[in-house]
Amino acid sequence: MSSATIRDEFFEQYKEFYNGGPIPQHSSSDFAYFLECHRNRLEQKGIQAVKKIDRIEDDIDKAVHYDKQPYTLDMTFKECNYETEYYKDGTFLARSDKDTETLYCNVLYKQGYQEETISCPNCGHAAGAKTFVNGCPMCGTRFKTFKFFPCVTSFYTLPKFIERKKTERNMKKVVGAGVILALLVAIGVFIYNWKTSGSLGAGLFFGVIAGLITGWLGTIFLYLGFSFILAVTSFSKMFAQAADTSDIQAARFTKKKMENEIRSYIPDFSYEYFEGKIQDLLRAIIFSEDRNNLSIYKGRDNLGYLNDVIDVDYRGGFKYEGCTVVGDVLHVRLINYVVCEVYCDGKIGRHQRNFKMEMIKRLNRSNDLGFSIHAVNCKTCGATFDAMHVEKCPHCGHPYELIDDDWVVIYVGS
Ligand SMILES: [Zn+2]
Ligand SMILES: [Zn+2]
């Protein structure tokens, strides 16, 4: 199955999920966890979010590959219309921006992977890992201490400002209008000449000539007029967009600097992969119920204000602010540009937020693309456990530090 097929199936099921359906079957265990946290937040607020993803017919549909044996990460992207409608008790509240977006979706493969058979810790039912995404199919017990491949690990959208398809459609209308105008003039001139000269031949002759000239000139003028309107509106849109995203454009200039600096510590560092990681971590922190007891967040700040956030969208850039090494731990500081939908006092508000974040990771450890916080392997006893809320192996008690395997956020503020 190709990454594009996995992605498209995933998004069909993703829309269903927000209508009360099961977790999309291709979701990685980390992503499935995020979806459940998000659904809990929406339920708490009594909000229904309806996700719409319409593909654009002649879309760009590509992928960037990142290889780190035995894993391959396919970062697919395509154009689409992505929007969310929010309802409370069946009443429409708000709709997220209706714009054309580029949808980025990461699909992770493991070479030579054979679907592993796992057993339910409650009833002992044994079957392929993939059938447990929505809990044990026999007893319904939910646990995420397993992995399978290929799986969808994350996604985000970036806004685009102009719909190419729409321009083409309008261009066809312009030509159509030219043809109709030509026909009307031809019929008019034909009838006039026929009636005044009494000759059918002369009527037809002048009618055809007039029609051709009108069609030709008319289409040219309509085309020029349309192009002018398009240029003016695109320009003002582009201008508005440029003003709106100037901070992001500026932030993206820090990409090269970041790659150069981080690669001196992590030689195979992938900016694109890291970009997805930041969004995953921020979303997990925002939708978490208990931030005091979270392995991925070790900050001390009161993040209670995030409890009203019902959705978060990446705006398409983060600003690298530098890194330092303390002992054998790398600290990376950045500003992450996102938009939050906030539900407060019965209203939904859309707020741009620039989250300052600091993330840490222990150096000299191999960077495991297939790592899942929900299926950590104990280095002492070999048991698999969920490390989202624990700091030691539940089987042998050996302490576990997430920074040995993955990024941990130590500061979030705005
Ligand atoms: Zn079971
Ligand atoms: Zn252990």
Question: Could you explain how this protein is built, in words?
Answer:
The longest helix has about 55 residues, at about 200-250. The chain is about 35% helix and about 30% strand. By secondary structure, it is of the alpha+beta class. It has helices spanning about 5-20, 30-45, 165-195, 200-250, 255-265, 270-285; strands at about 45-55, 60-70, 70-90, 90-95, 100-110, 115-120, 125-130, 150-160, 310-325, 330-345, 345-360, 375, 385, 410-414. The radius of gyration is 28 Å and the shape is elongated. It folds into two domains: about 5-115 and about 150-160 and about 255-414, no CATH class; about 165-250, no CATH class. Strand 12 (about 375) and strand 13 form a beta hairpin. It binds zinc ion (ZN) (2 copies).
Count of the separate structural domains: 2
Instruction: Give a short account of the largest sheet.
Output: 6 strands, antiparallel
Question: Gyration radius, to the nearest Å?
Answer: 28 Å
Q: Count the DSSP helices.
A: 6
Ligands and ions found: zinc ion
Intertermini distance: 42 Å
